[in-house]
Fold this protein.
Amino acid sequence: MEGRKQAVAVRYDQEKETAPRVVAKGKGHLAEKIIATAKEHGIPIYEDRDLVTMLSAVELFDEIPPELYAAVAEVLVWVYRVNKKGPFG
């Protein structure tokens, strides 16, 4: 049996924040709304169930914990490549 869909949105503004923050998270209908909103705004969607599970444990608007830095950094590199900007594109 497939579990309910989950989604987590992370924001990182390196000029204003010391680490990425969880800015939206949800399951089921709310997850679908988060994904639809990202698509509407041209925000790349990266799928990793394990990472979503770990990020879901972070309180909304809190910075991600240091133990998730490496995993989220991989996602950020992927996003920069998809957007063809920054030092990774």
Q: What stands out?
A: Residues 8 and 25 are 4 Å apart (CA to CA).
